[in-house]
Amino acid sequence: MGRPARKLTPDRSARHLFGADLRHRREAAGMTLEKLAEVVCYSRSHLARIETAEHVPPPDLPGRLDEVFGTGEHFVRLYAIARHEVHPDKYRRRMELEARARVIDEYAGHLVPGLVQTEDYARALFRVSNPKATPDEIEELVSARLSRQALLRAEAPPDLSMVLDEAVIRRPIGGPAVMQAQLAALVDLVDTPTTTVQVLPFEHGEHALLGGTLTLMTLDDDSNVAYVESIATGALIEDPQIIHARRRSYDLLRAYALSPSKSASFIRALLEAPS
């Protein structure tokens, strides 16, 4: 028995409406996903994810759909709205996409990224950002964060590259002992078969990613997404043009960052410095 089709919710957003309308017109035309995939030259799985709003449509697909279904510029106009829409389920979706990522490139300007935080480092952050939370609530948050790190220990982990602003490794989080343990954990990840860590020194000065964090993910179907985050907000980006611009900013930072070996020496110097 085939897997039941996921329920569509076209009233939620433009991207949901795009997917629902695509499925409606495909089924009305008596076309299977496999047949439509042949006609528009996209994989069945990619089209299925577009129908359920898991992926934003690629730029050239709307025109092909209008041609197939004879809908004028219906899908083109709908795409013009959907492509600029922040994903309505961005936090849940970020976790889902992260689990599917084959390559993760991350810039952090203030804090060690959650994927490589130690337990005590994460706990200190949750305590200060949730001052009214109970100890049990804090531990639940810590457990959730640490659970994300299982993908780095998987049989086929993603390739992880991180560029950390010097502020990330200099700001003492949780006290000297906690920070020392966190720095030691970073040193272990600086240059491995699947991870690299590079430090962007203060002397580099201003750059395009100041004030936030950026995560770029290449997924198991070779599609690309980006996630940007500030103090209390985050946005999942699937627009290819915006992702290209963020990728360019990240590549420039990586070019100006210290090499992995020099980054390891830089972090070790902080570890060995008197408290």
Automatic annotation (TrEMBL):
Pfam families: DUF5753 (PF19054), HTH_31 (PF13560). Residues 22-75 form the HTH cro/C1-type domain. PROSITE patterns: HTH_CROC1. This is Scr1 family TA system antitoxin-like transcriptional regulator.
